[in-house]
Amino acid sequence: MRSLALVVLALLLAGCAARRPAPVVDRLPVEVPLPVEVAKAPPAPEKPVPTHAVRRGETLVGIALQYGLDYRELAAWNGITNPNVLSVGQVLVVAAPAGSGPLAVPITTPLASPGAPIEARPMLNTPGAKVEPRGQKVPYTDRALAQFGSSDAVTAAVSPPPLASETPAPVREPDKPAGTDREEVDWMWPAKGKVLSPFSETSKGMDIAGRKGAPVLAASSGRVVYAGSGLRGYGKLIIIKHNNTWLSAYAHNDNILVKEQQDVRKGQKIAEMGQTDADQVKLHFEVRREGKPVDPAKILPAM
């Protein structure tokens, strides 16, 4: 038994000697990558609103014509209530301000000749509009005198109308754009006659000869944005806005047959030829693309 125990002990010692220690591995902590923030592109800078500094002798109509605008829009954007009064050096915004809607206070009276003041009246129920109470006139009778002598009648006469109204006031629809939204315009000659003077950078248009009273036609469909004699050197002038790109102007007329804000169709008679502010009977015709003069001969059909 003693020998057997010695043998077992020897085997155990041999097994322990044969075992090797487990290798030691250095394990570093696993690094979890943090989310990478993508740099956002900076917002595009807002385009500055174009402006125009008024020079001596300029008028609101003339400035509007330079930029292909309706002078009413120009007046509304700049808070001008008297379109006949401008100051030299006055800076005007010549594009619609961001977020601007329809004209809140349109000028309803045609622009007068230079020097004649004109004011745009605010529409009813608009901020700043001054509303005065109106008296009621009734025929004189003993009965009417007795009614106005009573306290109830006096109270009723001076009491303001109730604020609530059963019938809502009609909402004014925004002005629809003139002509078409497309840039293309179907042109025609505005008068029959010989071309006296072709287009030049100085004249900004062409002169067409004719007799006094001859019809002047709309060269294309659109809306009349000006009709009057408020632009020096043009006489009785008509400006038609065909879309947001094109305008046409008709000067030196003897008689104007259309009104501002009137829609006209191509070929419609809009005036009679004359020589207002000119040395002879003629039609001065201009075409402007975004306010810049364009040679009418390049866009009008062959005669």
Q: Please, could you describe this protein's structure?
A:
Strands 3, 4, 5, 6, 7, 8, 9, 10, 11 and 12 form a ten-stranded antiparallel sheet that branches. A two-stranded antiparallel sheet has the order 1-2. The longest helix is centred in the first third of the chain and has 17 residues, at 2-18. By secondary structure, the protein is α+β, with helices and mostly antiparallel strands. The model is unreliable at 102-106, 113-140, 148-168 and 170-181 (pLDDT under 50). It is built from five helices and twelve strands.
Query: Structural class, from helix and strand content?
Result: alpha+beta
Please tell me the overall pLDDT. 75
Note the main sheet: 10 strands, antiparallel
Approximately what portion of the residues adopt beta-strand conformation?
15-25%
Helix content: 10-25%
Work out the number of β strands: 12
Low-confidence blocks of residues = 102-106, 113-140, 148-168, 170-181
List the secondary-structure elements in sequence, H or E: HEHHEHHEEEEEEEEEE
Gross morphology is rod-shaped
Cα-atom Rg, whole angstroms? 41 Å
Number of helices: 5
Lay out the secondary structure.
Layout: H1 2-18, E1 51-53, H2 60-66, H3 71-77, E2 91-93, H4 142-149, H5 151-158, E3 195-197, E4 206-209, E5 215-217, E6 222-228, E7 236-241, E8 246-256, E9 263-264, E10 269-273, E11 282-289, E12 292-294
Antiparallel strand pairs: 1-2, 3-4, 4-11, 5-10, 6-7, 6-9, 7-8, 8-10, 8-11, 11-12
